[in-house]
Design brief:
Blueprint: H1 3-20, H2 27-53, H3 57-62, H4 65-85, H5 89-93, E1 96-100, H6 109-125, H7 127-130, H8 141-146, E2 148-152
Antiparallel strand pairs: 1-2
C-alpha cells in the first residue's frame, strides 16, 4: 500500500473518532434554555387561556382545568418541536439538541411526550433534577427513562 493511501486512511479514522466524541450540554445552559422556552412558548399560552378564553386572571386562578389545559398544550408543542427538529427555541438559542442516546437521531413524538411527562414527574420529586450532578453523561431522570441525551450542537455539524 502506498504511503499516501495510508495517510488518507489514518485521516479518515481520526475524522470518524472526532464525530463520535460528544459534548454533553451543560446544566446551566439547559436551565437557561428552559427559561427561554417558558417565556416564548408557555407564557403566551397562559395569556391566551387567561384573558381570551377565560376572560380574566381571577377566572383562570379559580379554575382547576385551565392550568392543566395550558400544560397539556405546552407539552404537545414541546413534543412536536423535539420530534421534528430535536430542539425548542430555547435549546436552539443555547445550541442544545435532544437525541436518542444510541443512534444520535431525533426521537419520535411519542417518546418526546413521554419525556415531557417524565420531566414533570422528575421536577415534582426533585430527585430527577439532581441526577445530572452525579452522572458523567449529565443525564437527568427523564433522559435515563426515555433513552435520550442533550448534547451541544456546536461540534455536531456532521451529524
Amino acid at each position: 500500500m502506498r504511503f499516501r493511501d495510508l495517510k488518507k486512511q489514518k485521516k479518515n479514522q481520526q475524522d470518524t473518532q472526532k464525530k463520535k466524541v460528544l459534548k454533553y450540554a451543560s446544566y446551566p445552559d439547559r436551565i437557561k434554555a428552559f427559561v427561554v422556552d417558558m417565556f416564548m412558548i408557555y407564557t403566551p399560552i397562559l395569556y391566551f387561556i387567561a384573558y381570551v378564553v377565560m376572560g380574566s386572571k381571577e377566572e383562570f386562578q379559580a379554575s382547576q382545568l385551565a392550568p392543566l389545559i395550558a400544560v397539556s398544550i405546552y407539552g404537545v408543542i414541546y413534543a412536536v418541536l423535539i420530534a421534528k427538529f430535536g430542539q425548542t427555541p430555547g435549546k436552539k438559542a443555547y445550541m442544545i439538541k435532544i437525541v436518542d442516546d444510541k443512534t444520535m437521531k431525533n426521537i419520535s413524538f411519542f417518546r418526546a411526550i413521554c419525556r415531557f411527562i417524565m420531566f414533570l414527574f422528575s421536577t415534582t420529586i426533585l430527585l430527577g433534577l439532581l441526577t445530572p450532578f452525579y452522572r458523567r453523561d449529565k443525564k437527568a431522570l427523564h433522559d435515563i427513562v426515555c433513552g435520550t441525551i442533550e448534547i451541544e450542537t456546536k461540534e455536531m455539524n456532521a451529524l
